[in-house]
């Protein structure tokens, strides 16, 4: 009888040891919960975009990101897609965050498109179908300037883009970017038919977007500041006066990185 009691006690102790074994299933589950809670947007308001992508990867098994805009988002001027700001950002996120090692950033940039044309179905339908968790919208105002789109129509198109994507993708994070700084403009005069310069569009859209309380990065000014810090001339970052070369896109990715990864 005593022998039987000892067998029962030993079995119970063994079961408890298995239950609380650090690398057991219970331990892994607790660790997984802790990892998700660390990046849960409801527990971490104001979290960086990268943390939100990690949360989506851990909670749903996949994180999705997309970019849209003009040719400088498409990657014109780079020797390969891997050297565009989109491609470099994808690589950085994969390397820095194990949960994002399979992340792909969809490229929905369209050469020559104004912000108004970014509302066309051929642009929006594939993005909506991709259901990105994070969507970066480059404002396309190089083309708005060249094609004489008024500032009022520019602002209205950005508002409609925000309404479209937040309405259809309510859990997605939306980030607006300005395009890069330019030198010579081979597609239009420095002052367009409306009497506006390219920088009027950059600063006008910045003020409009910030007034709405939306996420925004002034790539234009931050790239110029970074070039000054590194003693790099603007023409050396451009292929044709408008589109960045590999160096220009690398600077773009460098200045974008902290906006995606820090509060």
UniProtKB/TrEMBL annotation:
<dbReference type="InterPro" id="IPR036514">
    <property type="entry name" value="SGNH_hydro_sf"/>
</dbReference>
<feature type="domain" description="SGNH hydrolase-type esterase">
    <location>
        <begin position="69"/>
        <end position="251"/>
    </location>
</feature>
<dbReference type="InterPro" id="IPR013830">
    <property type="entry name" value="SGNH_hydro"/>
</dbReference>
<dbReference type="InterPro" id="IPR051532">
    <property type="entry name" value="Ester_Hydrolysis_Enzymes"/>
</dbReference>
<protein>
    <submittedName>
        <fullName>Lysophospholipase L1-like esterase</fullName>
    </submittedName>
</protein>
<dbReference type="Pfam" id="PF13472">
    <property type="entry name" value="Lipase_GDSL_2"/>
</dbReference>
């Amino acid at each position: 009888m005593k022998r039987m009691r000892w067998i029962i006690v030993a079995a119970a102790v063994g079961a408890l040891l298995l239950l609380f074994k650090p690398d057991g299933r219970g331990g892994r589950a607790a660790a997984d919960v802790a990892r998700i809670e660390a990046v849960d947007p409801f527990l971490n308001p104001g979290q960086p975009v990268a943390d939100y992508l990690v949360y989506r990867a851990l909670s749903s098994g996949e994180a999705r990101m997309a970019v849209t805009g003009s040719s400088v988002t498409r990657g014109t001027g780079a020797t390969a897609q891997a050297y565009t700001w989109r491609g470099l950002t994808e690589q950085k996120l994969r390397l820095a965050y194990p949960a994002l090692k399979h992340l792909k950033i969809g490229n929905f940039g369209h050469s020559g498109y104004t912000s108004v044309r970014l509302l066309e179905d051929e642009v929006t339908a594939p993005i909506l179908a991709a259901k990105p968790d994070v969507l970066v919208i480059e404002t396309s105002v190089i083309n708005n300037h060249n094609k004489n789109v008024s500032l009022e129509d520019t602002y209205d198109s950005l508002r409609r883009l925000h309404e479209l994507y937040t309405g259809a993708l309510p859990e997605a994070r939306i980030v607006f970017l300005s395009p890069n700084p330019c030198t010579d403009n081979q597609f239009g005069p420095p002052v367009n038919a409306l009497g506006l310069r390219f920088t009027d569009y950059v600063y006008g859209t910045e003020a409009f977007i910030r007034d709405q309380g939306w996420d925004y990065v002034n790539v234009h000014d931050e790239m110029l500041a970074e070039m000054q810090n590194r003693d790099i001339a603007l023409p050396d970052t451009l292929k044709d006066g408008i589109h960045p070369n590999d160096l220009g896109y690398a600077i773009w990715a460098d200045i974008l990185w902290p906006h995606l990864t820090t509060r």
